[in-house]
Specification:
The protein is α+β, with helices and mostly antiparallel strands and 353 residues long. It has three domains: 1-56 and 205-224, no CATH class; 58-189, Jelly Rolls, CATH 2.60.120.1600; 227-352, Domain of unknown function DUF1214, C-terminal domain (Jelly Rolls), CATH 2.60.120.600. It contains five helices and 16 strands. A four-stranded antiparallel sheet has the order 1-7-3-4, with no helix packed on it. Strand 3 and strand 4 form a beta hairpin. Helix 3 (31-54) packs antiparallel against helix 4 (195-226). The protein starts with a helix and ends with a strand.
Length: 353
């Protein structure tokens, strides 16, 4: 057998094994869940190829999106525009751009170990509010292991990924930030692709699919067992270990309804930069926000007279802040408090509709 045939066959075999955690999951109890499970694996494959094959060189980093409207990981935020780049503490980087008017813009370096032990530990964090910008909103940030004067984003020995998060409150009016990354003092050109390099990349893709799907299916099982129709995950260490934004307090849960039921979610709102709530499928993918109203936030939601909010989640349309289950009967859900002074627990109750 030729080298190229062997390489491809090994990848296909690894790919088959990498999806077993999804294909054998007890959470998928209906045809929609199962169909989305197959699609989820194809999405993880696309993300894995972008991450480990197309954009895997830390000497020549480029931004790609690991989560967007048709590729989703770990309760991706519909209000976010995510950018990722492969990095290494062996290099220094200049992150430059113009901040626009998006209300939240943050930069984080992480040790991406999803394929190893399900962690993505923070190795450096920087909020745009702490960045010195020019009068037109332009900025430059140095990401490096050794501290530098000015706008500095730390790297550590095991830093492997940069995540840029932009959070919108009103996409119709807010201007996205323009961000790019370049290695400092880089005058070479990338080496041509090789069979050895492709083999290593494809092996990492399979590991990524297995590790990522296993991590978030374990979370879904936990939420179903311990947080069914509730938002009460007050312990944050699990989420920070998996790469959560340190500005955010996460309240995950599991929802499960029949066609004549709804979730009524009521919550007071503290002083905060922002908040949002979303519903996901069992694979912890946000539901189809391109075609259904499946999330809301501090700008979009109608407020009660006392400043609190009430959200209704159901298949049937409702008055007020209604979120559409988009034909789903179950899944996970997430409330985020961003930059809040305290973290109220939403009251969740099942009502008949």
């Amino acid at each position: 057998m030729s080298d190229i045939k062997k390489l491809w066959r090994e990848f296909c075999n690894q790919l088959e094994i990498s999806g077993e955690h999804v294909l054998e999951s007890s959470l998928a109890t209906n045809k929609l869940d199962k169909a989305e499970g197959i699609r989820y694996l194809t999405r993880l494959l696309r993300i894995g190829l972008e991450m480990h094959l197309e954009n895997n060189n830390p000497e020549f980093p480029s931004f790609y999106q690991a989560s967007h409207s048709t590729a989703k990981i770990g309760a991706d935020n519909p209000d976010n525009f995510y950018q990722n780049a492969t990095i290494s503490s062996s290099y220094q980087y200049k992150i430059s751009g113009r901040k626009g008017t998006v209300p939240i813009l943050s930069f984080g370096t992480k040790a991406n170990r999803y394929a190893v032990d399900g962690t993505m530990a923070s190795t450096g964090e920087l909020d745009i509010r702490d960045v010195d910008c020019d009068s037109d909103g332009s900025f430059e940030i140095i990401a490096s292991k050794d501290k530098v004067d000015g706008n500095w984003l730390p790297l550590e020995d095991d830093s492997t990924i940069l995540i840029v998060r932009q959070t919108f409150f009103d996409r119709t009016k807010e201007e996205i930030a323009k961000v790019e990354i370049n290695t400092i003092d880089q005058f070479n050109k990338p080496e041509p692709i090789s069979l050895k390099g492709v083999s290593e990349s494809l092996s990492n893709v399979s590991k990524f699919i297995k590790g990522t799907s296993s991590l978030f299916l374990d979370w879904s099982l936990l939420f179903k067992e311990q947080h069914k129709n509730s938002l009460s995950t007050t312990g944050q260490s699990m989420f920070s270990r998996a790469g959560g934004d340190p500005m955010i307090y996460y309240l995950h849960g599991w929802w499960e309804l029949n066609d004549n039921q709804a979730l009524k979610i009521s919550c007071s709102v503290p002083d905060c930069i922002g908040w949002n709530f979303q519903i996901n499928n069992i694979w912890m993918e946000s539901l189809d926000y391109r075609n259904h109203n499946i999330h809301t936030n501090n700008f979009l939601a109608e407020k009660n007279t006392d400043g609190s909010v009430t959200i209704i989640v159901s298949k049937k349309p409702q008055k007020g802040n209604w979120l559409d289950t988009a034909a789903h009967k179950q899944g996970t859900m997430l409330w985020r408090w961003t930059g809040a002074e305290n973290y109220p627990l939403p009251k969740v109750e099942i009502i008949n509709v």
